[in-house]
Design goal:
Blueprint: H1 8-19, H2 25-47
Helix pairs in contact: 1-2
């Protein structure tokens, strides 16, 4: 990931404009909070060391439910 901090709110505004979404300031802030949480989770996953022989699971398939 980039070493520069991500301006999540600016990203939300830019994407909303590109998609033609009319978000209020409150709505944009709410989206930015959730996106910021997603970025934080992704950074934790990206930082987890994996050896060359390890692979991530391709598909999660839960077992049968009782």
């Amino acid at each position: 990931m980039s070493s520069e901090p991500l301006d999540v709110l600016a990203l939300v505004h830019a994407n909303a404009q590109a998609l033609g979404l009319d978000l209020s300031a409150t709505e944009a802030e709410r989206v930015a909070v959730h996106l910021g949480r997603t970025v934080a989770m992704a950074e934790l996953l990206q930082a987890f060391p994996l050896d060359d022989h390890e692979e991530v699971a391709a598909i999660y398939a839960p077992g049968p439910q009782p």
